Amino acid sequence: MIGFITFLKKELIEAVKTYKLLILGAVFLIFGMMSPLMAKMMPEIMKWAMASDPQTAGIDLSSLFTEPKALDAWIQFYSNIGQIGLIVLVIVFSGMLSSEISKGTLTIILTKGLARKAAILAKLTSAVLIWTANLTIAFLISWGYTVYFFPGEKLEHIGFAVFCLWVFGVFLLSLTTLAAALTKTTIFCMLSVGGGAVALTLLNIIPFINRHNPITLNSVPIQLLSGTIMPKGVYPTLIATSIIIAFLILASVVAFDQRGATKKSAVIAFLLAFLLVGSIIFSEGFLMKNNVNKHIITEDIIVGAGGEWELLGKLTLPKEASGKVPAVVLVHGSGPNDMDERIFDNKPFEEIAEYLAENGIAAIRYNKRTYTYGLKIAEQISERFTVFEETIEDALFAAEILRADPRIDETRVFILGHSLGGMLAPRIHAMGGDFAGLILFAGSPRFLLEIMKDQQNLSLDLIENKEQREAVIAINKQFIDKIEAGILLSDEEAQKIIIDEMGGLSAYYFKDMYDNPPAKFIADISVPFLVMHAGNDLQVYVESDFNSYKELLAGRDNATFMLYEGLNHLFMPSKVTDIGGLLEEYQIKANVDGRVLYDIAAWVKEN
Which of 370, 512, 531, 534 lies closest to 447 in space, CA to CA? Predict the structure, then answer.
């Protein structure tokens, strides 16, 4: 212990004398100061750059730039520290360890009685202390400047976010220690660490590994601050990383042995352990990817089998069930969605189906007809295409599959319609769905065109340039006028009005919905309703849509209403306050809120 402390002091003093601590401190100090400053000045810098460019000079592009926020400052901070800062740290520490080994200066010290274990642990401890001090200083400076530039803006989980980055830094330092102990040269040490980081990044495509991969911690801080992930979602990654760090340290101590035979044994043991852990992770990842685990069964099915529009789908069931189980048909929102209703890396239907199966409820999901046959529909039936062909018919086919399955309780088949699917759920029920209950998941009882107008108005609010705003208004008015004229015509006449702005749909698509509003079907439905809405939904709205359902279902004892604050249209955590930020938010991997999943399962079981 005395030798360890003595060598640790020597390392810290040497770091000061060789200016390595000063170099790191300067880098982190600059990042701490510049991150909020750059976030504050970036819009002005971009405006200046565009004004200097002959191609954009003289054009008012101010509408393209939004007012920077505190989150932008932290994104800059974590991007800088999590990339350049950590690279500098690894380079400096690689030299601190490998150079002494290759030059033999460490060997001289070891011959004087210092235990090899103490030497390697002191090296690592000094690096961790230096990393901790620099990260803390940079964080506090960045926090102070952010509060100054963006007063009044509060972000949750700031402390936990920087802790996650700190743990990732400790992991890299532990990996560097092992690489130095094995390679002995600075260049090979850095290459080994870089190769390890690339390998972990490539492995991150497997969901199971993603949740246990140390490299994930580098992106977690921004996700925490933006509200797209909660701290509990990071716990598996932190636990796995802590175990890996302990293993790396142990392997470093064993490998840093003077005897060649021992070193070779350590390398072989490390590789075998790595292969063992890798095999377990890959097998688990394969099982997770194919939805094969001890709780659920997932089977491939065909919706509309034998017909012109066959669709691939999946039926998810609880693996161990005593008797027949209830089931839910998952119906997509608008657009060509796959069976998981995937938006970038977010898969709400997959999450819902698996959660229900794990809680004793079957679920069926399938690719949407426009997803599989979009080109064929456009070429053959676009003028007479309606929501019946788009959504209703396939939902009825899916319900038939469930009722024909002997494992399903045919009297307890429910429908969960998301967005457009929620709008159409009462109509699907009335046209033969005969469901035991309806879950209206971010739906609306209003005419689709009214919702489109609201969304367009929100988008117009983002355009500050008067000329650009008027141009967009004119374009919107063209196809809105076509729709409003078409819904008053006969079916045949409406089919002749083609709306190019809507991908070649005819006005008949909207006329069909106008003639069959949700209220028309809701009035005659006596089965239970569960109306679920997100407080931060910018595509359908609490006042116009959620409260309209309350009015339509007023006085019904079997109607349940659930409002979830802080969630978006996908029922995932949200911090976006205007429709312009939705696309960016959807690109960040998130999960359906646990409260929402629990409430769906509980309501189905009760009914």
Answer: 512
Give the span between the Cα atoms of 330 and 339, in whole angstroms: 9
537 flagged as catalytic: yes
Active site (annotated) includes residue 340? no
- Cα–Cα distances in angstroms (integers) from residue 67 to residues 71, 73, 376, in the given order: 11, 12, 44
Question: Is 569 annotated as catalytic?
Answer: yes
Predicted confidence at residue 230, as pLDDT, reads 64
Helix axis angle, 420-428 to 393-404, nearest 10° = 60
CA terminus-to-terminus distance, the chain: 65
In sign, the C-alpha dihedral spanning 237, 243, 246, 250 is negative
Per-residue pLDDT of 410-454, as tens digits, reads 999 999 999 999 999 999 999 999 999 999 999 999 998 898 888
In the set 219, 340, 569, 593, the catalytic residue is: 569
Least reliable range by pLDDT among 20-34, 329-343, 434-448, 484-498: 20-34
Of 537, 548, 574, 593, the active-site residue reads 537
Active site residue: 142, 334, 419, 548, which one?
A: 419
Rg (CA), the chain: 30
Can you give the pTM of this predicted structure?
0.58
pLDDT at 254: 75
